[in-house]
Automatic annotation (TrEMBL):
<dbReference type="InterPro" id="IPR015422">
    <property type="entry name" value="PyrdxlP-dep_Trfase_small"/>
</dbReference>
<dbReference type="InterPro" id="IPR005814">
    <property type="entry name" value="Aminotrans_3"/>
</dbReference>
<dbReference type="InterPro" id="IPR049704">
    <property type="entry name" value="Aminotrans_3_PPA_site"/>
</dbReference>
<protein>
    <submittedName>
        <fullName>Glutamate-1-semialdehyde 2,1-aminomutase</fullName>
        <ecNumber>5.4.3.8</ecNumber>
    </submittedName>
</protein>
<dbReference type="GO" id="GO:0008483">
    <property type="term" value="F:transaminase activity"/>
</dbReference>
<dbReference type="GO" id="GO:0042286">
    <property type="term" value="F:glutamate-1-semialdehyde 2,1-aminomutase activity"/>
</dbReference>
<dbReference type="InterPro" id="IPR015421">
    <property type="entry name" value="PyrdxlP-dep_Trfase_major"/>
</dbReference>
<comment type="similarity">
    <text>Belongs to the class-III pyridoxal-phosphate-dependent aminotransferase family.</text>
</comment>
<dbReference type="Pfam" id="PF00202">
    <property type="entry name" value="Aminotran_3"/>
</dbReference>
<dbReference type="GO" id="GO:0030170">
    <property type="term" value="F:pyridoxal phosphate binding"/>
</dbReference>
<dbReference type="InterPro" id="IPR015424">
    <property type="entry name" value="PyrdxlP-dep_Trfase"/>
</dbReference>
<keyword id="KW-0663">Pyridoxal phosphate</keyword>
<keyword id="KW-0413">Isomerase</keyword>
Amino acid sequence: MNKSDIQAQAIARAQQFVPRGVSSGHRVGWTQVFDRTAGSYVWDMEGNRYIDYLNAWGPIVLGHCDERVSEAVSRAIRTCDVTGVGPQLYEADVAEIVCGAMPSADKVAFCSSGTDATMHAAHIARAATGRRKLLKFHGSYHGWNDQLAVGSSRVDFSPDAPLNTPNGAGLHPGSVADVVVVEWNDHAGLKAAFAEFGPELAAAFSEPYVHSYGCVPAEPGFLELLRDLCTAEGTILVFDEVKTGFRAALGGYQSVIGVTPDLTAFGKAIANGFSVAGIAGIESLMGHLGAYDGKKATLDGTYNASPYGMAASLATLRVLGDDETIPHLYAMGERLRAGLREAIAAAGVPACVAGLGSEYVVYFREQLPKNFKEAMDVDGDLFARYHAGLLSRGVLEPSFPTGDRRMNAAVTAEDIDYTIEAATASLAEL
Ligand code: PMP
């Protein structure tokens, strides 16, 4: 078998047994299959090496197969696998670090995915307020639970199209009816939504810095307005820090911008690749978690706070809490964004660069977008050719134009400079 057949055959074999050959949406359409990772690099089955700017869509923050995490997890595997009785190994240690770092965290409960975390946050908010409706922002993805999988489909952008279209088929119709969707950075629209629905809103969900369609910050005053409206109406403010948590700062992006939510959903970077997520919140709200009495919101899960996940989280958070790791991520992010901006200017291509710390994106449009509709209005053809150029030069990025990219902390200045060269050459070909 020649080398390139190996990957085609692996994909064909997966398609025989798995719908579309993949078990998560954005994995579809690649011709590469990756079978080795280390530090800032991944290798495909043909042995080609790529600098990784996908990083498993967020979780890999320290580096692939980080020794400190692998060592901690293998120790847990050898000494205590899972019990499911009482507090789990390292659970309190991880919770203590999160509570110490995250402004909104008096208590923390663990689950296994960001989807679980936002679902539990919705349950807590409804249990606490006795209200039904949820508010969210157009384009922000909060996972696939029925409560929130609304208003981020990329189907219809005509001016009159409703914002709260379901993201996929099979969602409970009542979920769609109960979600109020507002355009991101639309101050007047947000006020109007609260004026109309305020007393019915159990919670408002927001990414404090949007990564669902690249990198789009809140305009000055927007999150403060959201905070004030929630406080005035008794609506629970939930920050979805699944992407920003532990990566933008140990205490989440809330610790950077100084707007404190009532609840926070987190996941991804907390465990450098192990499936750990959770909900953090103020004491009075977290007290609404209980089990099976019909009055409390339930939190149950075989794998919640598993010793493997907690061991990985503890090791990851200890490193992220040092004086070097997050500053290194910010320095590498700045270096890359500056280099990309120069490369774009030199090539004269209509594109712009956005980002925060280790996260970045190149939008193929003249100006930075301020909401979902603008972010989707990019030159897809230029993007596809740029993406192919990077890939052929050993730089791996998400394959759709609004996917946020990120580096892990194993990345070196040489990796970044190589990436800028690859981008310069790819842009010159457009
Ligand atoms: N919220 C945000 C902001 C996300 O980016 C994601 C995943 N990309 C989720 C929630 C869902 O997390 P998970 O994939 O772990 O269910």
